[in-house]
Design a protein that fits this description.
This protein is mainly alpha-helical. It has a two-stranded antiparallel ribbon.
């Protein structure tokens, strides 16, 4: 191992070791706060050094990715420990009860959870209780017992054999292969920098620029699909990630999945898109921020997400822009969607229009995330005439006092962006997402 790689590893060990000392020594009433300040503070300091002192490129391979995952893990465990040891059962939500930890982990348990080879590079972050069940051999058997109890002995389903992950792993590896092929053949032919090319911006018509932006963003997604799907497949291959039996009685290996590609590509609302994208990070944001912030939960969650991603200005442009868009999207759906549910034709037309609007809004929002620099971001937004900013703010202001429809809102209405909260199969909402009976 080179000196540089030893230095990279040292960053991870520093955070994990310091966080365990906090777990052991700090007052359990404040352990979650200390862990968050420590982990996020160290991550931010490293990101500043990486970007502005050592000038590493965004695509350079270094410690920042694993450090981001470790930050999620140490803070998730700290919050779950605080819930289990400091709060009464009635003070916790159903989801929080399911993952709460009632005793401090040993050093070997803590190191194994944070540094295991399955998720050290790109995650995903999982719950400590799920990981401990996996290590101690209860991960699959416990969920099969739950399934048998629900079956009550009918149709022989109480004798379910232990499922094999082979089919799930092969399917996910096939998706990875498709994503890699798409990247080599398509993504590289639609470079992101062309959106801010001086000649293109000054000479191409607005619709041409909008169309290119749309397809270049679409083409940029498969590289993320590849990394997250491969990470999921690695965990499944080790026997981790079993979510139980689905409604058709087939084994589901999506407990710690990080995305739902179909849900992303067919999303008809801004929230639905985000719910299916980087699911485990969304659950982390929900756990440590959205569910606990006394006010301004949406804004604080987006700001924390930007800070976690790094210190490039483009991240902050993206997540701050997402705040008015999310508010406007909620207001529009609450105000007009129920008028289009009377017939299948109207509903189909509504879905087509909202799909197009959602995809274009996502394209507009995430472009700075990929451009990164302030100058490039401003060039792009000027070329788009800031139209999504203007329209979303106008819609949010115009519809803020409109009454909600008389139908009872679903539980998802007040859920945050990127926040699927069903347990134990956290990925289930994403797999059944795009449910337009929801009002978000």
């Amino acid at each position: 191992m080179s000196v540089l790689h030893k230095l990279y590893s040292a960053h991870i060990m520093i955070v994990v070791t310091a966080s365990y000392l906090v777990i052991v020594q700090a007052d359990v009433n404040n352990v979650h706060r200390y862990s968050m300040v420590l982990a996020m503070g160290y991550l931010t300091a490293c990101q500043v050094c990486r970007a502005y002192i050592f000038h590493y490129g965004i695509l350079s391979t270094d410690f920042s990715g694993p450090l981001m995952i470790v930050t999620q893990k140490v803070t998730t465990l700290a919050f779950q420990l605080h819930d289990g040891m400091c709060k009464k059962s009635e003070e916790l939500t159903k989801a929080q009860k399911f993952v709460a930890i009632n005793e401090k982990p040993s050093l070997i348990e803590y190191l194994s959870y944070n540094l295991n080879f399955l998720s050290i590079l790109v995650g995903p972050c999982s719950n400590f209780k799920d990981y401990k069940d996996f290590i101690e051999g209860r991960h699959i058997s416990g969920r099969l017992r739950q399934h048998s109890a629900k079956c009550n002995g009918h149709n022989g389903c109480d004798r379910t054999l232990e499922p094999s992950p082979v089919e799930a792993v092969c399917r996910k590896l096939l998706v990875c292969s498709g994503c890699m092929l798409f990247f080599l053949l398509v993504t590289r032919s639609l470079p992101m920098w062309h959106n801010v090319d001086e000649y293109f911006v000054s000479h191409a018509p607005f619709l041409t620029r909008l169309t290119y932006a749309f397809f270049s963003i679409q083409a940029a997604r498969p590289k993320f699909y590849f990394a997250w799907t491969l990470a999921d497949a690695v965990n499944n291959a080790a026997g981790y990630g079993f979510a139980g039996m689905d409604e058709s009685g087939k084994p589901s290996w999506d407990l710690i999945c990080n995305l739902n590609i179909l849900g992303i590509e067919t999303a008809t609302s801004f929230k639905t898109f985000i719910d299916n994208w980087n699911i485990r990070t969304g659950l982390w944001l929900k756990t440590v921020c959205y569910d606990r912030a006394p006010r301004h939960r949406l804004a604080l969650t987006f700001v924390l997400s930007a800070l976690w991603h790094g210190v490039y200005p483009g991240y902050y442009f993206t997540f701050i822009t997402a705040i008015p868009i999310t508010i406007a999207a909620r207001a529009i759906r609450r105000s007009i969607r129920h008028h289009f549910l009377a017939s299948r034709g109207l509903k189909l037309g509504y879905d087509i229009v909202t799909w197009a609007a959602t995809q274009l809004a996502i394209c507009y929002t995430v472009m700075p995330f990929l451009l990164l620099a302030v100058d490039d971001t401003l060039v792009y937004y000027r070329s788009m005439y800031f139209h999504v900013h203007v329209l979303s703010i106008l819609a949010a202001v115009a519809l803020r006092h409109r009454p909600k429809p008389s139908a009872k809102p679903s539980a998802s209405e007040d859920s945050p962006p990127s926040a699927s909260s069903s347990y134990p199969a956290e990925c289930k909402p994403a797999l059944t997402n795009n449910n337009d009976d929801k009002i978000d």
